[in-house]
């Protein structure tokens, strides 16, 4: 047996040892038995093409990979991989009807119905953290948000799962905060900006936003207020993946989306998303004034 074949065989064994776990993650993320194997097999493909020599926790690595795949599938269920997976893909182990039923029972039909009402990022944060104990530090890069914003996603999802929908009053209050922030920004009202920014507010930008001329990270109310003073002329309060945020519309197109994290009655974090592919995956609804 060659070294390459030995390594492939070892990876295959490690993957099979984690297959049931990955299927459990995928089932809770997708709620569809028909899509489970698509997600798990795609995880194998990515594993077989990756250098995992420095991966200390392969189970955690695979969990992250299958979570990313499921997130993409949730955002665009119609994109299914249909080309052959290649000769080295391990075949799924045979599973009895009783085993499938056991998986469904362990989740519960009622819970799956509630999970279907969540935004993709909310669902991922809740499933990984509350069901599989994945820390928010690992969830944050998967959903492309800060640790605090990821924690907020899971919290919102948890309330819905527990039968306590996020009160409309919360969204209404948050909208007023963002409306005040944008108004102060347009008017160049520095004090008005400080009034709605948390003293420790953090602004973060993706690489596309950085190319437009901003810094990747800015900390503190004074610095963030200076950044936005006299700006936001094309910005509108919007729902971004179901949460209060900001949409920057230029030439009739969404160019930048701002995800906003709140702490009480102030803005604690702003994340600017300008990457075209990332924006295309967002659900953005501009709110009428």
Automatic annotation (TrEMBL):
Where does this protein come from, organism-wise?
Answer: Bradyrhizobium diazoefficiens (strain JCM 10833 / BCRC 13528 / IAM 13628 / NBRC 14792 / USDA 110)
Q: Which GO terms describe its biological process?
A: DNA-templated transcription initiation
- The organism's lineage? Bacteria, Pseudomonadati, Pseudomonadota, Alphaproteobacteria, Hyphomicrobiales
Q: Which PANTHER family match?
A: ECF RNA POLYMERASE SIGMA FACTOR SIGI-RELATED (PTHR30173:SF43), SIGMA 19 FACTOR (PTHR30173)
Pfam families xref list: Sigma70_r2, Sigma70_r4_2
Domain of life, source organism: Bacteria
Where the record annotates domain RNA polymerase sigma factor 70 region 4 type, the positions are 114-160
Q: How does it assemble?
A: Interacts transiently with the RNA polymerase catalytic core formed by RpoA, RpoB, RpoC and RpoZ (2 alpha, 1 beta, 1 beta' and 1 omega subunit) to form the RNA polymerase holoenzyme that can initiate transcription.
Mention one GO molecular function: DNA binding
Q: What is this protein called?
A: Blr7812 protein
Question: NCBIfam families, per this entry?
Answer: sigma70-ECF
Ranges for domain RNA polymerase sigma-70 region: 15-79
């Amino acid at each position: 047996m060659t070294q390459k074949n030995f390594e492939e065989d070892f990876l295959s064994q490690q993957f099979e040892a984690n297959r049931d776990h990955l299927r459990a993650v995928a089932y809770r993320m997708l709620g569809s038995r028909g899509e489970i194997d698509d997600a798990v097999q795609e995880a194998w493909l990515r594993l077989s093409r990756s250098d995992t020599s420095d991966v200390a926790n392969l189970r955690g690595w695979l969990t992250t990979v299958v979570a990313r795949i499921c997130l993409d599938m949730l955002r665009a269920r119609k994109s299914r991989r249909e080309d052959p997976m290649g000769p080295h893909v391990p075949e799924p182990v045979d599973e009895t009807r009783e085993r499938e039923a056991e998986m469904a029972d362990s989740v519960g039909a009622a819970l799956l119905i509630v999970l279907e009402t969540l935004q993709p990022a909310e669902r991922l944060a809740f499933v990984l953290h509350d069901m599989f104990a994945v820390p928010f530090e690992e969830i944050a890069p998967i959903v492309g948000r800060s640790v605090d914003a990821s924690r907020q996603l899971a919290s919102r999802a948890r309330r819905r799962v527990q039968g306590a929908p996020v009160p409309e009053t919360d969204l209404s209050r948050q909208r007023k905060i963002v409306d005040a922030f944008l108004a102060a920004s347009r008017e160049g009202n520095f004090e008005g900006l400080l009034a709605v920014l948390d003293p420790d507010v953090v602004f973060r930008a993706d690489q596309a936003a950085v190319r437009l001329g901003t810094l990747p990270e800015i900390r503190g109310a004074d610095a963030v207020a200076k950044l936005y003073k006299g700006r936001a002329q094309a910005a509108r309060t919007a729902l971004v993946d179901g949460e209060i945020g900001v949409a920057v519309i230029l030439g009739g197109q969404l160019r930048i989306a701002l995800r906003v994290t709140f702490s009480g009655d102030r803005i604690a974090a702003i994340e600017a998303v300008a990457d075209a592919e990332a924006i295309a995956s967002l659900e953005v609804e501009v709110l009428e004034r």
